[in-house]
């Protein structure tokens, strides 16, 4: 077979046992930014946290976050 695509999401976290994953999303987002602050934006080590929060958080939130980084006010 050709290259197989492996789909993954953030691993289970015992701190967030309920189906509402809003706090899990927020925690992974904060962990990503703490990693960037500690290791620098050039570091690839933080990318796993980015993948986690992108898989957990709704797509609309990603757009607002990106707009905020570019200096635009989210709608």
Structure description:
There is one protein chain. About 50% of the residues lie in helices and about 0% in strands. The chain has three helices and no strands.
Q: Percentage of helical residues? A: 40-55%
Low-confidence stretches: none
What separation lies between the terminal Cα atoms? 45 Å
What are the secondary-structure elements, in order, as H or E?
HHH
Q: SS-based structural class?
A: mainly alpha
Number of helices: 3
Major sheet characteristics:
none
Q: Tell me, briefly, the overall form.
A: globular
Q: What gyration radius follows from the Cα positions, in whole Å?
A: 14 Å
Write out key terms for the chains shown.
75 residues; mainly alpha; 3 helices; 52% helix; globular
Secondary-structure topology with pairs:
Blueprint: H1 22-39, H2 47-56, H3 59-69
Helix pairs in contact: 1-2
Short description:
With 75 residues, the chain is mainly α.
């Amino acid at each position: 077979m050709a290259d197989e695509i492996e789909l993954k999401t953030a691993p289970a976290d015992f701190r967030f046992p309920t189906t509402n994953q809003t706090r899990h999303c927020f925690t992974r987002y904060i962990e990503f930014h703490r990693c960037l602050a500690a290791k620098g934006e050039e570091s690839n080590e933080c990318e796993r946290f980015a993948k986690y929060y992108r898989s957990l958080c709704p797509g609309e939130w990603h757009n607002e976050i990106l707009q905020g980084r570019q200096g635009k006010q989210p709608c």
